Prior knowledge:
By secondary structure, this protein is α+β, with helices and mostly antiparallel strands. Helices cover 27% and strands 43% of the residues.
Amino acid sequence: MTTTTASDSVRELLDRAAITELIYTVARAMDARDWDLLATCYAPDAVGDYMNANVDGREAIIAGAKAFLEPFDATQHLVGNIQITVEANTATTHATFIAQHVREDGSGSGGGSSSSSSSSGQYILGGNYDDVLHRTDEGWKITKRQIRGIWGNGDDSVLTPPVS
Length: 164
């Protein structure tokens, strides 16, 4: 029989709070284009599974985020419904997101699927983040992130990087 002590319960609550804060920090760092802060969220050997690309290593994850996000004039990632399972020094999370992407020039390559002028230059994507995390000397770090978009709406040409 497993006995849970008060200190075990407190540690689990502290772990859950730290992990939740980490998930929120990823979103804040992406929206602020704070690449140093984003790097603190990932382990050096982290991997990413991002719908259309697999990425190996923290530096490659940050480079990919920069390449994707910098063409936007603004983004806002709202994260919620975070579910956390902690087992010793490993945790898994599932969270939902809604991410708004804005390009003031109104388009990427043009011809998006917008049906109204109010969504021109904007695309919203909803989906899931599924993470594996490990406890380190510096706190919890993401070691694997899987992103899956479930739905989208707006001018999808906004997602096409501008040609330079």
